[in-house]
Amino acid sequence: MTDPASELASSPTFSSLRLLGRAFLALIATTTLCAADSSALLWQIGQPDGDNAEFAFAPKGYHEFREDGFFVVGRSEAKRDWPYVHPGPVDGWAGGGSHTFSVVFGVRQAGGEGTCRLKVALLDTHSTAPPKVKVQVNERAFEQALPNGAGDASVNGEPAKGKRHEFQIEFPAATLKVGDNRVDLTTLSGSWLLYDWLGLEVPGGLESAPVISSTVVDAVESAHALLEKDGKLFQPVRVSLRHFGEEAHATVRVEGVEPQRLRLVSRAHSLEVLLPAVAQEASRSVTVEVAGKAIAARSIALKPVRKLTVYVLPHSHTDIGYTEIQTAIEKKQIENLRKGIEYARRTADYPPGAQFKWNVEVLWAADLYLQRLGESERKEFLDAVKKGWVGLNGMYLNELTGLCRPEELLRLFRFSTQLAEQCGVTIDSAMISDVPGYTWGTVTAMAHAGIKYFSTAPNYFDRIGDILVQWENKPFWWVGPSGRERVLVWIPFKGYAMSHIYHKLTPAFVAEYQAQLEKTGYAFDIAYVRWSGYGDNAEPDPAISEFVKEWNTKYAWPKFIIASTSEAFRAFEQRYGDKLPVMRGDWTPYWEDGAGSSALETALNRASSDRLTQAEALYAMLNPAAYPAKDFEAAWRNVLLYSEHTWGAWCGVSDPENQMTKEQWEIKRSYALEADRLSRELLTKALASVGSARDGLTPHPGPLPVEGRGNATSAKGGSGSSSASATTPSHATPSSPSAASSSVQPALGSDVIIQTNVAERSPSPLNGERTGVRGEASSRASSSPNVGAVDVFNTTSWLRSELVVLSKELSSAGDRALDARGRPVPSQRLSSGELAFIARDVPPLAARRYTIATGPAHSEGEVTAHGSTLDNGLLRVRVDEQTGALVELTARGLKGNLADTASGHALNDYLFLPGDNLADLKRNGPVRISVKERGPLVASLLIESDAPGCRKLTREVRLVAGFHYVELINTVDKQRAQANPKPGDWTFAQKGGKESVNFAFPFNVPDGVMRLDVPFGVMEPERDQMPSACKNWFTAGRWADVSNDDFGITWITLDAPLVQVGGITATLVGSQANPAIWRKRVERTQKLYSWAMNNHWGTNYRAYQEGPVVFRFALRPHRKFTPADATKLATALSQPLLATPARGEPLTKPLFRVEPSSVVVTGLKPSDDGQAWIVRLFGAAGKNQQAKLAWASPAPEQIWRSDISEKPLRRTAGRLEVPASGVATLRVERPE
To answer: Can you say whether the dihedral through the CA atoms of 694, 699, 703, 705 is positive or negative?
Structure first.
């Protein structure tokens, strides 16, 4: 996300928002001219009046800037010759690069003794990227760093709103010489400054004199290029002159070549002299003569020019929102693709390299194009792809990959395999822009989609840690968690926003780019740059074809080639692929922290992803022929759109009540709501297949009216077609912005985490979604239900015994639960009226049937709740009666208390941090503890209190008889954060009203090692992190674990993905451009903190959230750590057993079994073509294993190794190797 330049010049705060360099800012510079006076000012430009009316282009004509200020004292006029604004290198509107403003003046006598002072008074500087200025007086140079300014109002015509600053440069008077002198002010870095006035104060006795020379030599510099002439290579030297006054003639003498002559008129002149190319550094003398008199003598250093090939990748950075409402972005990106094709057609006859090509940054744009345009335009697109006019990149969206579940991460690349087949091309590259950092499993997902090349181009300054310091123009191979997959990663100069800074490809850019490569020690003769236009969602820029055509015609080197990502990376790999470093580790992302600003919707989306995975498995188990592939595509699309990096409007934090902010958030939020609705609908339809195809019965014609267990849900969301738009759901936007905000996400079941429909306001802290029948569901004669019976489905690949909770309606037959053999199983009627029972040994990918009957509830073992203590004989938990945190957690067979209270925090401690100062950390008020469930099967304590940042804090702690983990159900009834007192105030948006909600988990595991679950892998902070990975916060997929060689504890999170390791380390609020401030090392620790909520950003994300939100955790002590056990338990809690009214014969035989069980199925679905099952295996054990699938009869005819494409790649039989943290996808042809 970057500022949309001139498009949003009327919104001054915008340019400060994200990419500091999008200076759509108006620059204010002032200059007036005077001679020495009684105040000892030798000259003065501008007036000390706090205004800039006397300067060129003032007060807001920065867009008229064409050349740098050049002022000849006694001849120039400020209104004509001195722009009101002095641009910096990041100001693309001024062409990028450093800018030098010069003052030429005469002195009547030598300076002598004393001190001179150059005084500079400024009206303002850029608010987040003030420039560093080099001041040169004749041969003496100084540097001056300038402070942050006030913002954009001053540069847009309101100088009074600027933040004034004055500085002075002192130098010996002897620096001045008799005759002509010169002062140069050059911006070395950063953005603009605005002048009020500047002048030169000199000691008494020094007098001004008219400028003698009418010609000034501005620069003598090498063109950093090679020109071929008569088979030989030459280096051009460019001599730049400024002449004022009468016509004259100049002679330029460069050592080693014939003199060049030039007629001078009153303007700037440039002369190019060709010198033989040098193989090593050499110097040449340059003399400029006017009217036979030498006016300048210089020496120029010639450095060898590298024979460099630079690939230019045109694209548009896709922000779905931010600059405009999402619906407008949809149209814009479709139009961008149209224009890209048109520009390619127009330049098809240009020389190779200059022909325009358009890179589709993310395939969402192509998906929209193909969905919405007519047949002729679709054909035009396919033809353009085949001709190479359009380059396709495999990532569907610029995703926050750290938020993705495993199957969700694979879905991010699924469309690339479908589109590649449709177009008849290979898609082997991916782009991502703006986003800094990517979860480790991204490598696995890309490799599984056939992608070898990864063009990563993060935001070039904001909240990116030291990614560019470490990796800009340093290509490397990134190896995935299994060690078997790798992708070539390459971050270009200035990430994706180089064109936002430079605006045009020019010779000056070429020189600066090569200088940058030389400065950083770039070792290759192939480079690439991104060209994304003049802002986010920018349209294609055909001017680059003209530049490349002209440049390549004139110069032999460097050579520019407009290309696709694949072309550029392939050329580089062929030449340098075996010379690149190989890196392994999690590139822990930075921007996922923003998802904590909408914690409710983030939790919803995590649940939707798991629910879709379960629904796909159910279709595979029950009725694969009925699998609605398009409906699942629509649902997954909404899941991905929520995790896309654009959260809202650029003014979302500075002006949260702005209409633009509200409208964009409603659409963004609708992705999560629509994913929730569609996933529930699909799960309900899948469960409606009970008793269908595999048992020879007719499936029930519509969705079952099941309120759902876990992911099973009613059809309340409607049952229309799910094949919605590629972006904005047509019917998902809620009627009230507070609807979801005031909903409570329900809590865990015992072994099962359960989720309720967001629209239903009545939470059940014990079990969010009740399994049961709505009132209208009693008449289902056609489906012949078995009265009082329920089928409990296991959609995972291992045997499971867990708690199941039924609604009052479904359990109305009684309190007793019987298995298929009529044996009672433990049960309990809960305080909510629901019935809980234990479903034992539910086979993988199959079901168990249970009957609810009259009679007393059966119990085996017991869990008790007394005062502030819970005990089930396996675990004992004690709650602190003052704080409500867990101060004791003991497990049978393990010594000691697993809660470490020595640091002052305990387990599940509520910690609220206003601002960024840890000294202000606050805790909840006095607690009220009551017994909610009394056993014998389920016991829980309810802990209620006031808490800072909340209307109310409720925490439930629960144990189930016979189970080895404790469940925590925290309900935060959030108060809205402090509002911006001055809507639009950028300063407040950065620092004001910031807050975060945290839950502490300090574990007493001496010398314990912390591990975090990531998609398709496990990582240890520090040890398994890439250089530049974020260490202030992390994303945990489902679990974290702290273990030593003997014992440990697994922490499971259902709703909140963000964690801090070792302490409250997420304290960087607002825009953060300094790489040095980020955490550099993570020491071994046994403490982690769930970072549940925050509003730390100054743009894009939410300024506040309010209403009840539930955060659910589980703690499981264990002996020696095994990653497969952690993965299976956490997956079971997020993909619970599913109960539905029984119908037909029970599905007791697994579709297949996997041996060993530590190889887990992360995905099972019917193939989209309807002919096969797709089985995704993951090596969860942390070691290579040979896996075997034992299929139910009839056995499948053929089994193929496959990938995300679902195509048969190669036959396989018997056991297959699944690497540690590796993924194997099988296509299993269904028997006829």
So the answer is: negative
As a whole number of angstroms, the distance between CA 577 and CA 378 comes to 36
CA dist 211 and 217 (Å) reads 14
Distances (CA, A) of 708 to 543, 684, 768, 841: 58, 8, 9, 21
Whether residue 249 is found in the same domain as residue 379: no
Regarding whether 313 and 293 lie in a shared domain, the answer is: no
Q: How far, in whole angstroms, is CA 690 from its chain's centroid?
A: 41
Q: Does residue 991 fall inside a structural domain?
A: yes
Distance in angstroms (rounded) separating the CA atoms of residues 582 and 1008:
29
Backbone angles phi, psi at 35, to 5 degrees: -95, 180
Cβ neighbourhood burial of 1158 (10 Å; 0-12, 13-18, 19+): buried
Q: What's the sign of the alpha-carbon dihedral 1030, 1031, 1035, 1041?
A: positive
Q: Are the CB atoms for 934 and 943 separated by under 8 Å?
A: no
3-state secondary structure (DSSP) of residue 727? coil
Asked if residue 616 belongs to a domain, the reply is no
- pLDDT, mean over the chain: 90
pLDDT tens across 813-856, in order?
Answer: 999 999 999 999 999 999 999 999 999 999 999 999 999 999 99
Q: How far apart are CA 925 and CA 946, in angstroms?
A: 5
Q: Do residues 151 and 243 share a domain?
A: no
| Helix, strand, coil percent content, the chain, rounded in steps of 5 | 20, 35, 45
Is the same domain home to 1031 and 1177?
A: no
Examine residue 436 and say whether the peptide bond preceding it is cis (omega within 30 degrees of 0): no
The letter for the amino acid at 218 is D
H or E, element range at 634? helix 629-643
- CB proximity list for 217: less than 8 A, separation 6 or greater: 239, 240, 241, 288, 295, 296, 298
One domain, residues 189 and 232: no
Per the DSSP assignment, residues forming a β-bridge with 534 are none
Residue 311 CA to residue 530 CA, distance in Å, equals 9
451 and 527 co-located in one domain:
yes
Judged against a pLDDT cut of 80, whether residue 701 lies above it is answered with no
453 assigned to some structural domain: yes
DSSP state of 214: S
pLDDT reading at 362 higher than 70 = yes
Identify the helix (H) or strand (E) that includes residue 1127.
helix 1123-1134
Which residues contact residue 120 at a Cβ distance below 8 angstroms, ignoring those fewer than 6 apart?
Answer: 166, 167, 168, 169, 185, 195, 198
Helical ranges in 688-805 per DSSP H: none
Model pLDDT for residues 940-979, shown as the tens digit of each residue: 999 999 999 999 999 999 999 999 999 999 999 999 999 8
**How far is the C-alpha of 1005 from the C-alpha of 1084, rounded, in Å?**
12
Question: What would the DSSP string read from start to end of 963-1018?
Answer: -S-EEEEEEEEEPPPPPPSSTT-HHHHHHTT-EEEEEEEEB--TTPEEEEEETTEE
CA 843 to chain centre: 39
Beta strands in 291-333 (DSSP E): 293-302, 309-314
Cα angle vertex 255, ends 251, 260, to 5°? 25
Q: Do 919 and 1001 share a domain, yes or no?
A: yes
Nearest Cα to 666, choosing from 610, 759, 728?
728
d(CA 860, CA 31): 90
What's the CA gap between 474 and 1025, in Å, rounded?
Answer: 17
Contact by Cβ (8 Å): 719, 1099: no
Q: Is residue 691 part of a domain?
A: no
Domain of residue 869 covers 864-1133
| Backbone φ/ψ region at 179: left (φ over 0), alpha (ψ -120 to 50), beta | left
Query: How far, in Å, CA of 12 to CA of 937, rounded?
Result: 61
Note the pLDDT tens digit of each residue in 548-606: 999 999 999 999 999 999 999 999 999 999 999 999 999 999 999 999 999 999 999 99
Q: Which of 1126, 1124, 1158 is nearest to 1038 (CA)?
A: 1126
Tokens at 446, concatenated? 């890309």
